[in-house]
Amino acid sequence: xxxxxxxxxxxxxxxxxxxxDVEVQKDRMRFRRNLERMGEIFAYEISKHLxxxxxxxxxSLGVANVPVLSEQPVVATILRxxxxxxxxxxxxxxxxxxxxxxxxxKHHKDGxxxxxxxxxxxxxxxxxxxxxxxxxxxxGSSIVLTYKELLRKGIPSHVHFVTAIASAxxxxxxxxxxxxxxTIWVGAMDEELTAHSYIVPGLGDAGDLAFGLKT
Length: 215
Hints:
By secondary structure, the chain is α/β, with parallel strands linked by helices. The chain is built from 6 helices and 12 strands.
């Protein structure tokens, strides 16, 4: 299932507009904060699909029965670009376990590239809810490869993929390469992907915009 939150009128579209805006992008702190706020909205929407149990809460005047999460998810991200989006998710799932994966494009002289994974830090994932976020879903290769690396820690009961901007091609790639226990959450989906696998209109390189140019 694919949820595109930007298809409905809501405040998330204000954040998407600022993420895309080349003038607003000059403020790195604003860029990171907008990704973080989107993560908070995604967390709220995902929370509606999780399991709850009632817990008695003692108040100053009596007892209230409140539905609370039955279990905490594992919130994972791809370094470094995914950190602000991950923080937004963690602002709401503040007791969640975390996983971090280092993945990057290794470019070749002919213009092609491979996805390299060099670092994985994760708790056991067997039968747990996994939320994996990355701000951009271009070809879909990075997030699929990252997910397969995380499977070394066990098979989750359900996976939520979270991304701010996705290409239609990337979403289809994810859907065709992963099992049915996956839900994809997208802020906005763009139709075009360039020959160098950049989303158009997209927003540029999220990692560079958030943290500065890399060499």
